[in-house]
Write the structure tokens for this entry.
Amino acid sequence: MSKATKFQVPRSARFGLVVSFLAAVGSGAVVWHQVQEEYRTSVEDLDRRAGMLVHRNASAARNALELAPASIADAMGDRLEGHSRLLGLALFGPDGAMVASGPGVSDLEAALHAVAARTTPAEPQFAEVVRGSFGTMHIMALELVGPKDEKLGSIVAVHDALYLENRLTRGMVRGFALALLIAGGLFLVTTGMAWAAFERPLHALADWMRRLRFGVPADAPPRGLPIRKLEDESAHLAASFRAARTKERESAETLARSDKAWTRDRLRAHAMSALGSDTLVVVSNREPYMHQLLDGRPHLVRPASGLVTGLDPVLQACGGLWVAHGAGDADRETVDANDCVAVPPEDPRYTLRRVWITKEEEQGYYYGFSNEGLWPLCHLTHERPTFRADDWEQYVRANRRFADAVLEEIGTQSAVVLVQDYQMALVPGMLRRKRPDLKIGLFWHIPWPNPEAFRICPFRAELLEGMLGADLIGFHLQQHCNNFLDSVDRMVEARLDWDRFAADFRGHSALVRPFPISVQPWSERHTVSDAALAEQTEALRQKYGIGEVAIGVGVDRIDYTKGLAERFRAIERFFERNPRYRGKFSFVQLGAPSRTHIPRYRDLISELESAADAINWKFKIDGSSWKPIHFAVDHHDGPTVHAFMRIASVCVVSSLHDGMNLVAKEFVAAQGEAMAQGGSDVGALVLSEFAGAARDLPDALIINPYDTDEFADAIRSSLEMPVAERRERMARMHDHLTEHNIYRWAAEFLKTLSQSRRSVAGQPRDVDIGS
Ligand code: F6P
């Protein structure tokens, strides 16, 4: 469900509802009481009138009752008949039998008798309103006694009392209509007053604080706040915020000009001058912090994702907003009313806005088009891509949701939007159409194939056109940039500017550049002393049943592109060729289950488990718990990954095709940390030539993962390499990473984006895709 469809009753309306409800109940109770009181008074009035009537006729009745029954009616004459609301009189003899009655009451003997019977010598007069099939009557009886107090009979007067009932009903209806009117009026008045006096100014204050947080400088705090003190305090806040920003900007400019290594602070300084007052927004499918239910409570998970590894430190350094799919089953529980959560939760540095997509959209957009279509299309692993028209529709719809969320969040502010990866190819075009002023960067984290491979995609032109809405399109490698521009050249009516390495399309120019992504130093996120590391390692060895043997490690999402089957085959060949390592070396594969709704991914887990079992069985040593492969399928946390990287003698990255692969760089960073702490030995890296990281880390043992013998030999070499050589290779790779870390990557991307040319000569035209 999108944010736009989530309706919340404003607080002022809730307040108005409570007030009007109480007013309605109160005035309803008053009306009820008044109408009942009026009814009672009317009945008393009728009692009085009927009483007078029977008393006035009592002596005539007494005389008449002394006559023979047949003459009684004649003696009473027209006294017995009714007029106005009086229906008539009736006389009862001492035995209780009706002896005379007016024509209007002659049929009511039983009802009249029942009332007459209630009179007693002590209370000779009795009246009652009686309801029955005959209607509603007021019946008044008076017992008649002779000179010696002997009972002569009773005289009964009957009035039509229906008008009393009608008056009661009318009174009720009018009264309740009035109560409703009062409640409605009160609702409007109190809601309006609460909105004008509190909610509107507080909303304005919240918006202002938000703009202040994003650094919009010239904005004064709103006036007319409900409390004077709030106005004064916000004015002070604005003043000190501006002063702090000015100071920060000055030192930022100084720092940005310095030639020190790229650090979190230097990137922050650089971003401040590159962004100016623009808000920094990242948009991706994968969120950096996910909440999953564990034992019924939300539990924080860091998804296994190269994109998250790369971008989270950037936003932690620069602040801003990250818009991503809220995929965790406890994500909705942990956001505020605007679907936002401050992250990292333990030390918030930026805002994560979660976007909700439906199951159908997730199926078509994420599992279908992104991961059964684009993923195998861009990774050359001989996995056939599947393109379905329905999946494409969902991909367009979901991209629009993400673009709308970005637009909603930035409002009218100017912003720099960094769109991430193949799940979001249409977002740049969608943003460009609505907000041509935005600076939009797109970074593609996976490879871009050559045009022959790419052209099989039925939606190739739409994808390329959507991407060309960006000002800057980044890939990890120059080769991916070349492939991309070749694809644009053949499939879109764009003008290529090979000098600038740009594509001019519909009045807009998109630069295409390589930016090999990198990692942040481990020390910034996870520092452990040697003693703590030894303790942690011991605990992990116990947990996984790994004895005191040398360890090799692999850390991957379980994905066919990662070459895990090839890795297990190479380990098998390693033990075949080097049986002396049985009982002395174990390989720990930390595998995070991924995209498991796709059969190919689900099946891969069981295929790998069977392969590991078969290898473990093949090299089993009787009487020993040693295993060649520990395949740990789970979402492993940062400290576990770090500990294995620190204790491993070798790390293996055997991707069949990979944009960059940050595991390789994370391993080098962990070894650099060990060397900096005075560690005498370091591990070695075995790295696939088909991972982008191989270009940046040539001192790794580079392998072709399809060549099992070469791969197995590289594992042996890594274990047998002289310590000095291992240290030298690792030091060179670590130096490269220190210089080319994630902060430099982000700084270069932002710098190029801020300098990118915005439009080309000629009439600008709309970008059609996904508008
Ligand atoms: O780096 C490539 C990538 O697909 C990212 O886009 C993604 O976050 C990561 O791998 C993990 O994949 P997923 O998000 O599908 O779990």
Q: What stands out?
A: Residues 507 and 762 are 6 Å apart (CA to CA). The radius of gyration is 44 Å.
